[in-house]
Amino acid sequence: MSYYYGENGVLLPPFRIISATALSEAVFHGVRLWKNRDDMGNESVYVCGIGFNNRHNVPVIPKMSPKPQLDLFAPRAAAKPAASQKESAALKVTKDPGPEIGDLFDTNFNAADIAEWELLFRDVPQYNYHFKRAQIASAFDRPLHKKLIASHAFERLREISFLGAIDYLFHPNGKPANIRHSRYDHTIGVALLSQRYCRLMGLSDADCDLLGAAALLHDIGHGPFSHTLEPEFARRFNRNHHQLTNQIITGEVQLDLSVNHLLVKHNVDPNEVIALLSKKSDHPHASLFSGPVNIDTLEGISRTKTYVHPNHVHCHPRLLLEAAVKLDADSLKRLDKFWQLKEDIYRNFIFGPMCFATDHLCREFVVKNAPDFAADDFLLTEKAFLNSHPAFKKFLHSLKNRIELDGVADVVDHQISASASTLDLNEAKVPRREFHINKDVEVRCFADLSKRYYEEKNSFLRRVGSLTDPAQQAAAASLFD
Asked: What global pTM score does this model have?
């Protein structure tokens, strides 16, 4: 076994290939290595794209020139020429139309609505909702941001689903081949918006570090299944993602002490980051996080829209952010449409019958099996959480299979009600958010958007089968066998 040298002549430990014909990848001391064995048994080592034969002395790896910064919001390559009318007609005949939106969700999307979106967002590059490591490394130029992204607490977000249990039931855009969303990708998207805002406004490096750090840390404390199980962790153990976020930022939890150290080392006040995220900051650009049209909701609603509509309709968060900065007549039309979309997402999807019932039943499972769960479960990734709670994993998958087979929004609510018609049903409080636009006020800056866009919060009752009663639990379980 040979040894290989990394940057500055650092000796790297050997590594072994498990499969003789497969290309494998490993990372040692920050240096990326590829090792391959061809059909003749000859081995080659590739380091940063340069190949060395392992039968000869391996020279010190030369310094690589820095890559130019990558703009993940940049338009993609030009589209291919449109097909001829005959080819287009043939494609329309053979193409699978896919499921109708009404089959899954009670939404208000229609042809006129889609046409309005396409009119407001003409020639828009499709937003990339999933980011590769190389893209991320090139997109962020501030040392603090790079190191925060590399931290353990941030890496943990890769295994925290964006919408909780809902992510295990649906595929974005209704396509099973699509990757599901995570808090990691969402947070990267929010940080990119923060970076874009700083450039548009010509802010100082200090402000860029502060706002970028707040963007990267705004969801750092989310627990397994995000908002699905958080109410039960908060009620039983006084644990929620706001509290854990603050503890990570101040270095009060063993999950990751490096975040606080990095902030202090780069002259970013941890308390100011917390103030921005808790909407208590007097920073001139605090509305980037606290306003009704903030970078978190711009990215999050755009991302959630991929669940709701099977055919992607452009809702690029970068263009929405630029509209919130520019604030001309066309920009306000885009933002008005976004505000209407936000209401539709909450009313008909997140708090719609199927998604609400899914979250409710998962919480009821935790209630029923309370002794099996502990406060420290909130610190786990979802993979570790499911391994620790196989019964919950089985329940989640059985629930998923039942909903996918029926393919209708009210299957959980109605099926459980029908099976348990002789039993008392649990009435759950469902949040209701009503979104309004005041077009009479003058909007001169980003902060003024809070005058134009506002919402009212109330609730209503929905009847959902309870799993706390043994008889109801048996009736519900019979649906998932």
From this structure: 0.72
